[in-house]
Amino acid sequence: MKKIINDPAAVVTEALHGMAAAHPDLRVHTDPAFVVRADAPVRGRVAVISGGGSGHEPLHCGFVGPGMLTAACPGPVFTSPTPDQIQAAVAAADGGAGVLLLVKNYTGDVLNFETAAELIEADGVDVRTVIVDDDVAVRDSLFTAGRRGVAGTLLVEKIVGAAAEAGADLDTCERLARTVVTNVRSMGLALAPCTVPHAGEPSFVLGEDEIEIGIGIHGEPGRERTRLAPARDLVRMLLQPVLDDLEWQPGDRVLLFSNSMGGTPLVELYLAHGSATALLIERGLLVERSLVGPYVTSLEMQGISLTLLRLTDELIEWWDAPVSTPALRWGR
Amino acid sequence: MKKIINDPAAVVTEALHGMAAAHPDLRVHTDPAFVVRADAPVRGRVAVISGGGSGHEPLHCGFVGPGMLTAACPGPVFTSPTPDQIQAAVAAADGGAGVLLLVKNYTGDVLNFETAAELIEADGVDVRTVIVDDDVAVRDSLFTAGRRGVAGTLLVEKIVGAAAEAGADLDTCERLARTVVTNVRSMGLALAPCTVPHAGEPSFVLGEDEIEIGIGIHGEPGRERTRLAPARDLVRMLLQPVLDDLEWQPGDRVLLFSNSMGGTPLVELYLAHGSATALLIERGLLVERSLVGPYVTSLEMQGISLTLLRLTDELIEWWDAPVSTPALRWGR
Amino acid sequence: MMNCDGAGTAAAWLRVAGVVREHCDELVRLDRAIGDGDHGENLRRGFDAVVDRVTSAEGDTPRAVLRQVAATLISTVGGAAGPLYGTALLRAGNAIGDRPDLDATAVAAALEAALEGVVARGRAEPGDKTMVDALRPAVLAAAAAAERGATIAEVLAEASAAADAGAQATVPLVARKGRASYLGERSAGHLDPGARSTALILASLAGSAAS
Amino acid sequence: MMNCDGAGTAAAWLRVAGVVREHCDELVRLDRAIGDGDHGENLRRGFDAVVDRVTSAEGDTPRAVLRQVAATLISTVGGAAGPLYGTALLRAGNAIGDRPDLDATAVAAALEAALEGVVARGRAEPGDKTMVDALRPAVLAAAAAAERGATIAEVLAEASAAADAGAQATVPLVARKGRASYLGERSAGHLDPGARSTALILASLAGSAAS
Ligand SMILES: Nc1ncnc2c1ncn2[C@@H]1O[C@H](COP(=O)(O)OP(=O)(O)O)[C@@H](O)[C@H]1O
Ligand SMILES: Nc1ncnc2c1ncn2[C@@H]1O[C@H](COP(=O)(O)OP(=O)(O)O)[C@@H](O)[C@H]1O
Ligand SMILES: [Mg+2]
Ligand SMILES: [Mg+2]
Ligand SMILES: [Mg+2]
Ligand SMILES: [Mg+2]
């Protein structure tokens, strides 16, 4: 294992020190670990809080700032944060207008946020939780853990964060989050695995020209292992299940988010984005917004995910609204 | 070789199609290949143009936009662009106030830009060239190709681009570029190589716990091959030669730019940034600005570079000025 | 026979910490096969904190000790296992009330409450290939033993044996909860890490009771 | 003996394109050892364009053909080699002027001008481990052969042999120009890719002249 670290157990804390040095407009705490925008609590604004295992950077801490998350809780690498972190983040972020927790659908995250929410509620805070489960690689069912939350989480955070910034109330923020969750779908693939620092070995092994389709963001295996193919075929393998999962209509306006799992060069990611855009246009969809970059990663994993969000005027308005975080920044 | 591509020879063109789809505020041309901001030529403003081999994304095309580059010319992967691309970019970008070419110091880039500049000058355009050579890994000498241009190039582009946006004339822009070049130094290391699509094999091979210190951004070998060490030692190996190369004074204000070579997770990069900040503070330098991210990359190479720029009020002003490009965006 | 007051309970859980540390790599390996490879590290982090933080003052009840262990695990383990084990121990503590010493019936009741806690949080059914598949047989075995008048050591020994068998029986199962469920059919053929850690913890507790 | 008018010149350069294609992988391998591994691809891209674009109309002079080849290489090769080979051919064309046919003296003069062009752009000295180390001995050999009245085929054969020897002689050298210079001492022990491609091009031209 080759990593730029000192001690596997100290990775997250030491990285937070680096974040603190790089971003004076964030307040970074290490014990318990959470990151909160420097001007929090913002009086009268809903606090939008997320979190999850580390190793997916810039998700979530890199999305803390005006117009997006109020605070974020980083767990150890690929391990959910604990309730005390979430409680501390809420205490720092709560501006009196309620708290919305955005949680990726993994058992660990769900249970820890659920435990935290019970404790926070007991303190008299109005807290709501919205679970993001956009990964179509996993078949949903009442009897399983359900679909995973992956890259679509960024879109939920951006859109709800913009509404909260503009003063939307907790009901509105919660409804908006559910609207995005209902309309967003993702699927990813891996060309090469990643290695968790404290594990020391790759999370899976792929042959010379094997790829894993339907990969999760923790190196969990996907739907199937198959052969490497030209980019245009890979793009189709990802988009077809996404298109099959929702009832898309020709003329639907969509946001296409082409995400790198960390180790894929931008030149390949843009190439895939071009290919995906062409395929969607062919299917009669209107690609009205794009996002391309390594935003929801799995350490150095090589691979990509494609996320499609059905847009409405309301969602476009909040997507376009100003945002000012370390990793996502535009407007005003 | 595992890559998300269709045909090694078409990678750059197809990636440019993706850029065009993702960024409506850029005009993207593929034959010859160049990217120019949509509102170019901007009358009365100096056109700031750069370019170089592809594979370093977001450098340079991702830095085209208000407040930074007017246009950029992407060559094939790791190969300089040709004079006809540069001429076409100049024709599209020239707003009548002169053209500044920012060139990384590699023989290929220098010769192609030099050839282009001769042709452009022959057309009566006032064109200046500033060569960036910030890489302290290579010892400079009149009898060699000199130091390479690496991550410091981004800082030159940002600072000069801001001045040009604000209406600075060609002399001022050229002087400013030379000031940045004089005051910026970088050094990088690699943990794992990258593979150029048309080469199909890694550009070098490293043993299980070997690293290459002083690596260039094309997978060129560096100063020495050594053993992997804790992050704090790696950071010292990079910063010491940088500190030795310029006469830094205690109390000097600096910008620290921690750059990923592409395949290094952000969590490791932030960790290194924290470590580097601490070391600089220990040496009495004032770290007044930070930049952390995969900005000047070598495809999927794992590794980092650290860049130090000595700041003045003037440089800080232009650094902080608004910028709006695909990869770097802040202000207003 | 161990002391079944607060101090004895604390000593037993410190011994669990040692077992977790010893089996950390094994649990990581199991979790890497069908999960994300962190179960061993998660528990080790949590039980290292237990060693640091859990103390039993003169006169502390077993319940007070269990609450400390539970709170520590909840705030340090993370992952699925943190809230599950934490909730289990909170409920177990509540079940035994404020008695100064445990007896066999109390131990069996505590185990049953622990199982209820895990199910309340995780909503797993038997056969879903989770820690429930180790804990449920342990609860049944403990109840039967307590009913026939067994000692604490015997109750825990039978619970431990049942947990171990239950854990082994997860091998052929297809996971329906937790990360392993993403693997679908591919999860069959592997031991569930959480079931294994449950069996290890019970074995350690049984060892403490016997010594 | 080949035809030494414009058509013959064009035919000779199309043949070079074939040789470049054939040796592409070898040049890539050489460049990977001490450079960035693209020299073969760069030249192949350029000479594929030469095949597409270069035509010789009835009555075109050799100079007109060389200008086309030069312009094509400059706009398609990139890297260090593009401007260097492009400038070399531009200068070579200028040196032979508008004569309709080449003779041995003109060929020797063209080679000399090509060398001057490479040096003017690249500022390399002999021994810097660049294409200059193949081209310079070729120029000297060609001049000597032309002076003693050799044919074009003989001039190019001797130039080619000298270039090949010069290229081989780059192996022990430490590079002082181009990417290979970043390697310092580590560049010794490898053949310079640009010197090798110069030798290959001259060998191909010599072959055309002889056939
Ligand atoms: N819903 C659930 N109910 C009961 N146990 C569960 C549930 N989900 C997961 N587990 C248990 O948790 C174990 C994994 O724990 P751990 O690896 O620490 O957490 P994570 O899966 O978040 O990485 C599984 O092996 C399983 O026994
Ligand atoms: N300054 C120079 N003068 C003459 N030849 C040079 C010079 N720099 C490089 N070369 C030649 O160019 C060759 C490399 O060409 P190529 O690989 O196509 O370009 P790049 O180095 O830009 O990738 C070297 O092997 C060397 O022969
Ligand atoms: Mg986990
Ligand atoms: Mg090159
Ligand atoms: Mg796990
Ligand atoms: Mg080369």
Summarize this entry quickly.
Helices cover 32% and strands 25% of the residues of chain A. Chain A is built from 8 helices and 14 strands. In chain A, the strands form 3 sheets. A 6-stranded mixed β-sheet of chain A has the order 1-2-4-3-5-6, sandwiched between helices. A 6-stranded mixed β-sheet of chain A has the order 9-8-7-12-10-11. A two-stranded antiparallel sheet of chain A has the order 13-14.
Your description of this structure?
The complex is a heterotetramer, with 2 copies of chain A (332 residues) and 2 copies of chain C (211 residues). Chain A has 2 domains: 10-183, 3-Layer(aba) Sandwich (Rossmann fold), CATH 3.40.50.10440; 184-318, Hypothetical Protein Tm841, Chain: A,domain 3, CATH 3.30.1180.20. In chain A, a hairpin with a 4-residue loop joins strand 13 and strand 14 (329-330). In chain A, helix 2 crosses helix 3 (107-122) and helix 4 (152-165) runs antiparallel to helix 5 (170-183). Chain A is 32% helix and 25% strand. With 332 residues, chain A is of the alpha/beta class. Chain A is built from 8 helices and 14 strands. Chain C has helices at residues 6-22, 24-34, 39-53, 62-76, 81-96, 104-122, 132-147, 152-168, 193-210. Chain C has 9 helices and no strands. The radius of gyration of chain C is 16 Å and the shape is globular. The relative contact order of chain C is 0.15. Chain C has one domain (6-210): Alpha Horseshoe (Serine Threonine Protein Phosphatase 5, Tetratricopeptide repeat), CATH 1.25.40.340. The chains are: A alpha/beta (332), C mainly alpha (211). Bound molecules: adenosine-5'-diphosphate (2 copies) and magnesium ion (4 copies).
Which helices and strands occur, and which strands form pairs?
The complex is a heterotetramer, with 2 copies of chain A (332 residues) and 2 copies of chain C (211 residues).
Chain A: H1 11-22, E1 26-30, E2 33-37, E3 47-54, E4 71-77, H2 83-93, E5 99-104, H3 107-122, E6 127-132, H4 152-165, H5 170-183, E7 184-192, E8 210-213, E9 224-227, H6 231-245, E10 253-260, H7 266-282, E11 286-293, E12 302-310, H8 313-320, E13 323-324, E14 329-330
Parallel strand pairs in A: 3-4, 3-5, 5-6, 10-11
Antiparallel strand pairs in A: 1-2, 2-4, 7-8, 7-12, 8-9, 10-12, 13-14
Helix pairs in contact in A: 2-3, 4-5, 6-7
Chain C: H1 6-22, H2 24-34, H3 39-53, H4 62-76, H5 81-96, H6 104-122, H7 132-147, H8 152-168, H9 193-210
Helix pairs in contact in C: 1-3, 1-4, 1-9, 2-3, 2-9, 3-4, 4-5, 5-6, 6-7, 6-8, 7-8, 7-9, 8-9
One magnesium ion sits between chains B (78-79, 108) and D (36, 38, 79).
